[in-house]
Design brief:
The protein is mainly beta. About 10% of the residues lie in helices and about 30% in strands. The protein has 2 helices and 11 strands, in the order ββββαββββαβββ. The protein has helices spanning about 50-60, 110-115; strands spanning about 1-5, 15, 30-35, 40-45, 65-70, 80, 90-95, 100-105, 120-125, 130-135, 135-140. Strands 2, 3, 5, 6, 9, 10 and 11 form a 7-stranded mixed sheet that branches. A hairpin with a 5-residue loop joins strand 9 and strand 10. The protein is globular, with a radius of gyration of 16 Å. About 25% of the residues are buried.
Amino acid sequence: MITIISPHYSFIQFNNLQESHLCNHYPFGCLPVADEGDISFQIIATTETEEEANYLCNNTQAIKVRLQHANDCENTESFIVEYTPNLKFERLRTGAKDIALFWQHGLPNITGLIDIGDCFVIQLILPDETVLCSNCFERVEEDCYTTVIEYASPSDNFGFVYCGVNDKLD
């Protein structure tokens, strides 16, 4: 079994399907996204066995990354786009059963896939077919209300992995 944890202070959080992903469910609305480079994120995968961790490290397609309509998170048959056939997580083994996964590709072609005003989530499909979805995003036309925040540090801080960036797996 694989458990996915988002750093506590990350704007992008992944959770189970019990929470609503409707645009109007969020008291402050969905996070705005104007361009394909507006999104990158980090998650930590914790496995029950070292064999599972080895599988995640060696299989670049082990976790699928898709865009999904915000009100259709549990749907794994129909989705907007799947990125993982061509793109992969950068991976860093941080412990015997822990792997830091970095998605630094943004959301390629989002401007052609999501209409202005539409809400969506990032959907992760784990090897055991567990479905996790991010918090809600809304495609916006104006980028004056969006900011891409990039963190860097010489040491691991606030639940984010910074050390060993040069030691990522291929």
